[in-house]
Automatic annotation (TrEMBL):
InterPro entries in the record: Rev_trsase/Diguanyl_cyclase
Protein name (Swiss-Prot/TrEMBL): GAF domain-containing protein
Organism domain of life: Bacteria
Amino acid sequence: MENYATAREQEQSNADIMGQKRQEKALREFKEVLNDLMFLLRSASEMETAYMYWVNRSRKQFVMETQSTMLDNVMFKDRISFENHFLDKFKDIDEPVSVRIGEDISASALSHYYNDVPVEYVTLLPFVNNGETVAITVLESSEHVFTEDNGDVIYSYINALRNVLNTYLEISDLYEQEDEWIAYEDTISDLEENCHRAEMVKKLLNKIQSFLNDGGASFVTQGMDGWCNVMNSEDAKYAPPIGMQMVERSMAYEAANCGEAEFAIHLNNNPNRLSPREFHTEGASMAIPLMMKDRRQGIVLVYDKNPLVFKESTKHKFINLVRTAALQMMANDPNMELDAPIFANDYRAFLPDLWERTVDTELLRIKKDIVSYDSWFGLVTISNVAELRTKMRMEELADMQRDLITAFNPSQFGFPGILGYNSDYVYSFFLQNKDSETVQKWTRAVKKKFTNAFTLSSGEEIETGIKVGFVRLTDDYGDSYQVLSNAKSALSQALKSNKNEAI
């Protein structure tokens, strides 16, 4: 009996130690995520210094959690009493507050700077839990105050902080979810990369895919005078075809319209994720807007046949991942023009960085035999570019390119597909459909529009022909470069003849 009791005590002791280690690891990784969030917040808001203090009311202290700065003359104290810190009179705020050095607070109050105080504006972001301000994030800048125009960054950060806190508490209570937290922290870290925004979308979709068992993730964005699906995760099951248009009353439309995430369990194929023409509307889905300073730049669709995948904690993670990706995109390209679609050019054709990654992803999906559509990639142009360039002014040529994108748009003929920019007057296209004659039908429809003189939006008429070269995607292709090279060869042959060429 004594041996049995001793063994039980030892077993319980080991369990307690393991539980403590799990909690310690979760806490450590939680702090790492907070460090990453603070860096992203400072970068996206273009501030010199950003930091967060917990408000410890029982000890009447501000406790440093994390900080990020680009300045050299900064040194923070880990703990400081209320009465010795300028945050004392702000410790009960429940909304963001902006102050100016020299007017609202003195420069000497910012004791974490030595030699001189190089900042002029301070913005305070409270974190409120159960009606009490438990933490304050401080942003300091020498040139500009954090205004309402940056509200999306504030909203994203506060919600990301709340989601991370909730996730941490959940994992601290449920030891068996330790691996999930580690993977989530790794996922957040993997998004902290200086890369093109199209690459960030690809990474984001594949990271979300790792949470799913029988579904996928897709990205919907603006281009070609509308919204459509432009990329799927590499392992997505039941993904909508590339180019499927977003329609009103769909989940994606509602998310884009209100700027908030939408969640639904599908009954009798309702509601639609993207379009009534989609297949496999089963299980449950989320539509999460990619927001940048209150601009809707895209919608991330997440779907799985098993609705139980969408636990509250998992939904928070998806939303947080999308917000983190948006912050990182803004940090990577501070001069990005957010008042226009960021994944299409001035002609409304999708950027090469985007369609190249779409082709690469779909090639991988074809190799894995998880694509239920035929796919074609090609190039389309007009037959008398040189002649028109000598007749028209530069601004007229630019308007003509926009009109050509509208005229070539596959969706107006009922075919899912996207148009991308390859070079002036030469556009890439990617069509995906169950009908094996899709590319031929689309080509005939486009050519018919140009049988007689084509009227531009300016009212001017042009006479031209259409030349198309394309390839059908198979697992023989290695990457988008090889596909593009073959499509160029096909277009070259088409320009030399009176026929469309396919390889």
